[in-house]
Design a protein that fits this description.
Blueprint (H helix, E strand, L loop, with lengths): L5 H19 L4 H14 L1 H26 L7 H18 L5 H27 L3 H21 L32 H18 L1 H11 L1 H6 L4 H25 L17 H11 L4 H25 L4 H20 L1
Helix pairs in contact: 1-13, 2-3, 2-12, 3-7, 3-10, 3-11, 3-12, 4-5, 4-6, 4-10, 4-11, 5-6, 5-10, 7-8, 7-12, 8-10, 11-12, 11-13
């Protein structure tokens, strides 16, 4: 598979596999894809909703992309999103009024970065594979968040969710009647900042050199262990921001669901976005928008064609499979 064609071919193959799976299950692939891909683009309300879906995917995609640049296969964004969301809930529990927003950002990002310290230490000091350690931390974060939302931070008026972000601290829709909030431009701006950091900053250069050749990095006085910490920290910060924004900037609930439904899976969606975007921050933005259209389109596919949402997951899984095969062959 030629390098310039691997992504289009992987996406095309995934849609073919998805169509075959729909047909074998008794659903109409043509009607399903029409609802999935065209409906979100035909109305600004649906398009803005797709962009809202893309924001956290872009941020978690940046987590994986920064890890790749450092030579890491960091899949810890999932747990770090949970911790970011939990930090936002903690802020809503402790503070009322506008002050809850800056506290949510501080607490959410800090918790996410602290959560990444464990796999960073295990990798840099003991050489523990980051895939194993981040999976472990993801599950700990999942059950810790479930317990917190079900007990201390439960909403007494609505037990299925956490306490709500105070109205003064919410990022409300920029266009009334839509889901488009400041979370979307914030996510895209963060992608631009990460691009500048990786390409033009000293530490971005060190991360890239260490990721490509740790031995050469050492010969130039660059500490691979230290760059691992920086890569984990930057990735965790943007993943934590994704979790915060899902609580303070996602109408109508402005809370964390008891089953974590509004944050679950975002870290793994980010892996897809990073692979589709070739690990480039700006490519991650385009891939995130594409995945946002799929997510929004899946809702219409269920309503208009009666096709289950899970078929979108099949498509995403096949995309990752085809791209992973190519990576292993190179």
């Amino acid at each position: 598979m030629r390098a310039g064609l691997d992504i289009p071919l992987a996406v095309a193959a995934a849609f073919v596999v998805g169509a075959l799976a729909m047909w074998a299950s008794g659903y109409d692939p043509a009607a399903s894809y029409r609802s999935m891909l065209l409906t979100p683009l035909m109305d600004h309300v649906y398009l803005f909703s797709a962009l809202a879906f893309s924001a956290p995917i872009v941020l978690t995609g940046l987590t994986f992309a920064v890890g790749l640049r450092a030579g890491l296969f960091n899949i810890g964004a999932e747990g770090q999103v949970y911790m970011g969301a939990l930090g936002a809930v903690l802020a809503a529990y402790l503070v009322k009024g506008w002050a809850a927003l800056p506290l949510a950002l501080l607490a959410g990002i800090s918790l996410a970065v602290a959560w990444a310290v464990v796999p960073a230490l295990l990798k840099s000091l003991r050489g523990v594979n980051e895939v194993v350690s981040t999976i472990m931390m993801n599950w700990i974060a999942y059950w810790l968040s479930i317990m917190a939302v079900s007990t201390v931070f439960a909403n007494p008026l609505q037990p299925e969710e956490s306490v709500k972000t105070p109205p003064e601290a919410r990022l409300t829709p920029l266009v009334p009647g839509t889901d488009l909030t400041l979370a979307v431009p914030i996510a895209y701006a963060v992608a631009a900042l990460v691009y500048v950091f990786l390409k033009y900053s000293v530490w971005g250069f060190r991360i890239s050199v260490s990721g490509q050749n740790p031995l050469a990095a050492k010969s130039y006085g660059i500490s691979p262990g230290r760059t691992i910490f920086y890569a984990f920290a930057v990735g965790a910060a943007v993943a934590g921001l994704a979790g915060v924004l899902q609580v303070v900037a996602r109408p109508p609930s402005y809370s964390l669901a008891r089953n974590l439904a509004n944050v679950y899976g975002l870290g793994f969606d980010g892996i897809t976005a990073a692979m589709l975007g070739r690990g480039h921050p700006l490519g991650v933005v385009l891939a995130g928008i594409f995945l946002g259209v799929l997510q929004e389109g899946a809702r219409h596919m269920q309503i208009e064609a009666g096709t289950p949402f899970e078929f979108v997951r099949i498509i995403q899984g096949v995309i990752i499979l085809f791209l992973a095969v190519r990576i292993l062959r190179t």
